[in-house]
Amino acid sequence: MKEIMVRAIYCEMLGYEASFSYIHAIKLAQQGSAIEKRVGYLAVSLFLNESHDLLLLLVNTVLKDLQSTNLIEVCMALTVVSQLFPKDMIPAILPLVEEKLTNPKEIIRRKAVLALHKFYLIAPNQVQHIHSKFRKALCDKDPGVMTASLHIYLQLIKNPDSYKDLTGSFVAILRQVVGGKLPVDFNYHNVPAPWLQIQLLRILSLLGKDDQSTSELMYEVLDESLRRAEMNHNITYAILYECVKAIYTIYPKSELLEKAAKCIGNFVVSPKINLKYLGLKALTYVVQQDASLALQHQMTIIECLDHSDSIIKRETLEVLFRITNVKNVAVIVEKMLDFLKNVFMEPDILFLLYVGCFPLLSDTYSPNNEWFIQTMNVVFSLGGELMHPDIPNNFLRLLAQGFGSEEEEQQQLRVFAVDSYLTLLESDTAHLPQRFLQVISWALGEFSYLKDGLEPCKVTKLLAKLLDERNVTSESRSWILSAMAKLSAGPGAAALALQVSERYSSSLDTVLRQQALELLHLSQDPELHARFFHLWHVQVDSSLSFLDSFVSEALSQGAAPYKAPHQRQEELRQEKALSLEPYSISLPVSLSSCSITDRQSPTLLSMSSSLSGNSNELKAGSSTLKLEGVKRVWGKEGYLHQQDAVEEAAQVEEAATPALPLSPQQGGAESQQTHGDLTVVEQEKQKLASSLFVGLGSQNSTFLMGKSDSTSQQFRRKTRAADSTSSGVSERSSSSSHSSCSDFLHNNLLEDSQNSLNTQKIGVSNGTHEGPVTQSFQTTSKETSPFLDAGMVLVQPCSPQTELRDFVQPGSSGITQTSLRSQFPPELSQLPHSDISLLSSDHSLSLSACRAYRDDALLFVIILSNCSQSSTNGLSVQLDCKHIFETFSTLIQVEPHTQVTVAGSVSYRAVPGHTQTLQFTDKLFLTDFIRPLTLSTEEYGKLWLSFSQDVRQNLKLIQGEGDPLRATLSALKEQLQLHIVDIIGSEGIVACRLLPDSPCLLHCRIHGGSLAVWLRSPLLSLPDCLLYYCQKTLEEC
Amino acid sequence: MIKAILIFNNHGKPRLSKFYEHYSEDTEQQIIRETFHLVSKRDENVCNFLEGGMLIGGSDNKLIYRHYATLYFVFCVDSSESELGILDLIQVFVETLDKCFENVCELDLIFHVDKVHHILSEMVMGGMVLETNMNEIITHVDAQNKMEKSEAGIAGAPARAVSAVKNMNLPEIPKNINIGDISIKVPNLPSFK
């Protein structure tokens, strides 16, 4: 049997179907002796996958083997568990695996840790309660177990905030490892536990990211590992590379950066090709922070451009991308195209290239429009059919919408495009790829009217010629026909159109035939033509509200409510899965008796869809609004910024030229022996270098681009505005600065209002200013509440001398609490709010924040206080809004998260001409966005039925005097702002909503000694996140 | 995380494939073919890393490979693994195989697929590196083999008897051929005559 199974494994590997043997593999694992069991488990783990039906048959075997006294059987069971295990069966097996964490055998503990890691990956909520055990595993006396636990931490620390306290331990571990305290067994080529070191370095870099105090803890140990890792073996390079990466990720320290830069230098110039690759990779990483490093290695980079290995070439181009700016873009793109022509067609490189050109142009970095069109032409004709379909689509969108530049320029761009396409069409068109033809025909159809003196007749003629080419596909033909339809109004064109449509109206392709007929009608009836093309901007009701009455009627006649496909699938899956619970849920059954006759219900059901429709409109509206704001307030600043950039670029240019004569000497030394005409080559290289690295300087982070940009292209405007959300608040509260500031905030916050983070309030209390309290409100026309919708800027100079003294004292955190509260604006103090917490401070300014909970919004209040005697000028607050917008719009509304981080900085001038900045971060928790949802039991029932997906979890009951259910629920209500709808006997129903409008329903029932909770919500991950807080709250009670 | 470990020969015939993420049967075969296509066209003197094929996740994943005589060892990993670290892990894997099979060759992988998988499962578990020390790996594998043998004693007594005879005979046969023995016996022979 064993032999047969091994052969079945071999067959499967070669790609032959052997599904008949699956059941035998499971049987073998179940019944066989150890030797057979081993093969059985192996076969199962190779044959089956997590969702395979047969896997359920294995669960019992695994359970049995986990309880076995035989070490090897336990090991086998753990191995198979970590390879594949059905998600819904984890609760059954979890206690056994947990128990294994205390097994005396090191290998079992280690495997148990990895099995738990697997559980964490597939079902993070189910292992939340054993985080303390992970910590224990980290402190295990055996280094192997500790190493295994690092896998988990590497995963957990992706969200680093709750693990900052472990930094010390990780540093200590790394120090011991680097210091050679581990047993010699762990050495590999005389390096102590290199894989462990690599992992630790990764964890540290995650922990120290953007966090100065944490980073300070690790400077020393990083320095030591840099020192210890002598260059002699591959694996030490691996450690060095991780080290360098860590140094550049954490809060920078100049000494270390210098050493790291030297290291990268060694990598890049290394003759070993793998190291060169890593060096280049590190460079792409580093140039984002410090482009001058690329300057140092310019000659190497240029040599790498001509390297025989295409992977190296690619990496080099990646580096070049990141240093692209207005001066060198043409050269870089030219290199890129060379690469494409010579090496191979790879769609994603092409995409990269396109993504590269795109922002350059939209920021008007490209030399001119003509260049852009020409480059795109080359890209299209090279890329051909391999091209990513997004590229032509985006390009067309760009042509149609422009990129926010002047109208005139945009027209110019279009004319250029039309021009170049016409010349292309007049020459031979046979070699042009289909996609390009489609782009051409669309652009000609839309914009050819822009060009003066161009008869539509001529364009139509060209298109008709194209139509008759043999190699044109029918898809392209339909593009061409629709372009002709747009142009058919002109006098000469009509006859031609008639001719064409006659030919194609008998075509076998139905689409073509239809289009030909359309063309025929349109060309003969100019009035229809005019009317038809005025219909472009039709309003579409995306929420389908006109169907509401139909839906409600259908529902009242007993039709089932609509369920989204994923819900349906989920339901099917749940039906299939083995239920571990007693069968019926009593409450929903009793509720189902109440019929859905209310006319309101369908709107409730379609609520989420209409909501999304609305938010889209809102978004569109606000972005246009915002644009005005950007122009008014930021036009000047942006302009200033660019000027700066140019100046700096010029400086660097100067700096670069003297540096050049040095580097060719190094590069030239080797090649001197081989080539006589070296000088010419060198000169060319130098020229290339100077053109490539021109304009590199510290400012170049603004020009950065890369793969990550590709997704944000469409939202470019938005993020740009968000990035630069800052407001200049002049401390003198002069009316002019105020209006601009509040105006600006107002524009931004309009966008906020849909993201439910509503108000940003800046209160400046300045000790020296003795004027009366002034407030300025900016309200929007529609809304009534000044707080919510307008960016209220409250400048509140007040001058109690006593406070000043308090502030001057070091360690004044206790005092600030009370004194700050007294300054708390009355409108806010009526609202429930969290404690005011000091976020950061320096000698002259302290910054505190607090969260106030409005019924429909969360107010994030930032309080700045001047604690020095002197006045502070030019105060500006910058919130890292990009982050907020992204996280709030995607995470809170689409996919809730347990917490998000808000970061920002305050800059001010204490001494004239000397700007200081103060960084701060704060966390917002999911609970901040939870509000009670007041419902009647009946409404609850309806809502419950309208969601279909259940999440179930057992929670701890609070044991005290009185009813434990009541006690538990009221504790949850206190902490999480839930609304208790009803409590009947041993069951309770609770409701809450996530701002702005996502309900979450909880149905609790005492089950054994614990509280069984079912949660339902339209947001898929909201129940999980809420459960996390429920567990946390109850643990704390 | 390690997504997949593939071993194939110079002609692209798979010799071992282990996926730590689920792909359908057909996709797995396509991945192997695609990977072979990517890896085999690379020269000897280029770097050992390249970006993964479309099927296995595109540029988010890396292929890290080593070429030994007739076999390619390819690890497909995501961004959370260190490239050079994995490269050395392949070295450890191959050295371990070499120790277990004594001069490992392609045939060993064909005839002992299960053994290779067992060794691999001691090194990498569920996509995570479990053990990197060669001696430890061999100890664990040996312990399992030993237990299997002792267990085989209960279940397969007849088989054991056969193998016992084999084991008893085997050392004796060489002894007779042994030059040392002959050299002792040969001088004695004439004295009898």
Automatic annotation (TrEMBL), chain A:
Gene3D superfamilies: Leucine-rich Repeat Variant. Residues 724-742 have a biased composition (Low complexity). It is found in: Endomembrane system. One of its GO terms (biological process) is vesicle-mediated transport. Residues 931-1035 form the AP-4 complex subunit epsilon-1 C-terminal domain. Coiled coil: none annotated. Subunit of novel type of clathrin- or non-clathrin-associated protein coat involved in targeting proteins from the trans-Golgi network (TGN) to the endosomal-lysosomal system. Adaptor protein complex 4 (AP-4) is a heterotetramer composed of two large adaptins, a medium adaptin and a small adaptin. This is AP-4 complex subunit epsilon. The lineage of its organism: Eukaryota, Metazoa, Chordata, Craniata, Vertebrata. The gene is AP4E1.
From TrEMBL, chain B:
The keyword Protein transport applies. InterPro entries: AP_complex_ssu, AP_mu_sigma_su, APS3, Clathrin_sm-chain_CS, Longin-like_dom_sf. PROSITE patterns: CLAT_ADAPTOR_S. Pfam families: Clat_adaptor_s. It is a peripheral membrane protein. GO terms for biological process: Golgi to vacuole transport; intracellular protein transport. Keywords: Cytoplasmic vesicle, Golgi apparatus, Membrane, Protein transport, Transport. The keyword Protein biosynthesis does not apply. Coiled coil: none annotated. Residues 1-147 form the AP complex mu/sigma subunit domain. Gene3D superfamilies: 3.30.450.60. It is found in: Cytoplasmic vesicle membrane; Golgi apparatus. It comes from the Eukaryota. One of its GO terms (cellular component) is Golgi apparatus. Belongs to the adaptor complexes small subunit family. Part of the AP-3 complex, an adaptor-related complex which is not clathrin-associated. The complex is associated with the Golgi region as well as more peripheral structures. It facilitates the budding of vesicles from the Golgi membrane and may be directly involved in trafficking to lysosomes. In concert with the BLOC-1 complex, AP-3 is required to target cargos into vesicles assembled at cell bodies for delivery into neurites and nerve terminals. This is AP complex mu/sigma subunit domain-containing protein. The gene is AP3S1.
